[in-house]
Specification:
Number of helices: 13
Largest sheet: 6 strands, mixed
Strand content: 5-15%
Number of domains: 2
Order of helices and strands: HHHHHHHHHEHHEEHEHEE
Structural class: alpha+beta
Number of strands: 6
Radius of gyration: 44 Å
Helix content: 55-70%
Strand order of the largest sheet: 2-3-1-4-5-6
């Protein structure tokens, strides 16, 4: 049972290793990472700090050999590592000077090239150092060998395949040198160390992939929620429009009219012109319905609404007040202008083309009552409606198909014939 679990664990690790090595052509999570995340990973990959520290350590050991033993044999190691570091800095400068049109894939390939050069540089310089170092300093060299390897492993969160290749080159060159030097255990130790690093890199690969996928899923979910919210906002706007619109005529309904009138009277500035309200009633509409039917009557109401809208100004507000009655709010409008607009509405309705209706007996006309709310009078909606309604009643008494008006105030209601 225990052996079975070990074999399953080994297979799991090998599967993760295959997936990791398959990512050598690009960055980890290329299917999930954003462009910004890709550039951030490349920024970390090109960071020269680990290379600078390793080059400094190798140079110090070479200087120590010359100073302590008078040996110049380690100087080539310092020259190679300084040259390798200079090449690395050249890549870093080019990376930081990249233009806005730079492509991630191009810089992935350039990093892979620079990593291969660095691996050859570190491997050859450390091999020379190992071969030319004597005494206790050799132990420092063995410790130093782990520096570029650990530095490379730390970058496995971005390009694990390139990292493993880098580590393999360095360990391979060092183990061959150590074996030639007489340390026959170097190759098996290097293989064990490589296996340890592969396991470490594999764990980093798995964790990084999960993190990028989780971030990708979160972004996708956020985008989906954002789209749903946008769709919901559109639907709410449509529902709000439907709730405030008369389904037959397409103009605003009574509910919307009541709110609009209240708001206009409340917001009317102290120094503004008066506000006018037109109540428009279709003459003899009950008789029309009885003669031609409700369907024809509905079509007539649509035509009346369209005629009113054709006269409507930019800030005016048209609504179906109820049945065959319409209302038109005229903000900042004097009595003379309100009567002029009302007359235009009457003429527009009288001139409607009713030829498309089935057998209309005659054209339609409207009677209009105009209520005027003078500025600075603190008029309530009900008072203005009573003024307009009284004026409409007067228009009906005057023979219909005409306009009459009334003045609303807080104390009295005047009707002007």
């Amino acid at each position: 049972m225990a052996e079975t679990r070990k074999m399953e664990g080994l297979r799991t690790r090998l599967t993760a290793l295959r997936r990791m090595l398959a990512s050598m052509a690009g960055l980890i999570g290329s299917d999930y990472a954003t462009k910004e995340q890709a550039w951030e990973m490349l920024e970390g990959l090109f960071n020269p700090l680990a290379h600078a520290l390793t080059a400094t350590a190798i140079t110090i050991v070479a200087w120590h050999n010359w100073h302590a033993y008078g040996s110049l044999a380690s100087v080539p190691a310092a020259i190679i590592v300084i040259g390798t570091f200079a090449i690395r800095l050249a890549f870093v400068r080019r990376f930081h000077r990249r233009g806005p049109d730079a492509r991630v894939s191009d810089w992935v390939r350039r990093f892979a090239s620079s990593s291969f050069i660095a691996a050859l540089g570190w491997g050859s310089s450390l091999s020379i150092l190992l071969y030319t170092t004597e005494g206790a300093t050799r132990f420092a060299v063995f410790a130093l060998i782990s520096a570029p390897i650990q530095g490379a492993s730390a970058r496995a969160y971005a390009m694990p395949g390139v990292v493993i290749l880098h580590i393999s080159i360095v360990l391979g060159m060092i183990s061959v040198t150590a074996t030639a030097f007489g340390v026959t255990v170097a190759i098996p130790l290097a293989l064990l160390y490589l296996w340890y690093q592969v396991g470490f890199v594999s764990e980093l690969f798995t964790l990084r992939t999960r993190m990028l996928k989780a971030d990708h899923d979160n972004r996708a979910l956020l985008g989906q929620v954002t789209r749903y919210n946008a769709d919901l906002a559109v639907m709410n706007a449509r529902l709000s429009t439907f709730a405030l619109t008369d389904g037959l005529t397409g103009v605003s309904n009574r509910r919307n009219f009541d709110e609009k009138l209240r708001q206009n009277l409340q917001d009317q500035p102290m120094h503004a012109a008066s506000l006018a309200l037109l109540l428009i009633d279709v003459d003899h509409f009950k008789r029309f319905n009885d003669n031609f039917g409700h369907l024809v009557g509905d079509e007539c109401l649509k035509l009346v609404a369209a005629a009113i809208r054709s006269v409507e100004r930019a800030d005016d507000f048209t609504a179906r007040y109820g049945g065959e009655e319409f209302a038109l709010i005229l903000p900042a409008t004097t009595r003379a202008d309100a009567l002029m607009v009302a007359e235009r509405v009457r003429l527009a309705v009288a001139a409607m083309d009713c030829s498309a209706l089935p057998n209309p007996a005659r054209g339609l006309t409207v009677s209009i009552g105009v209520g005027i709310a003078v500025a600075n009078a603190n008029i309530q909606p009900r008072t203005l409606l009573e003024a307009a309604d009284s004026a409409l009643y007067l228009a009906k008494q005057s023979g219909r198909n005409c306009v009459r008006d009334g003045m609303a105030s807080g104390q009295q209601l005047q009707q002007i014939a």
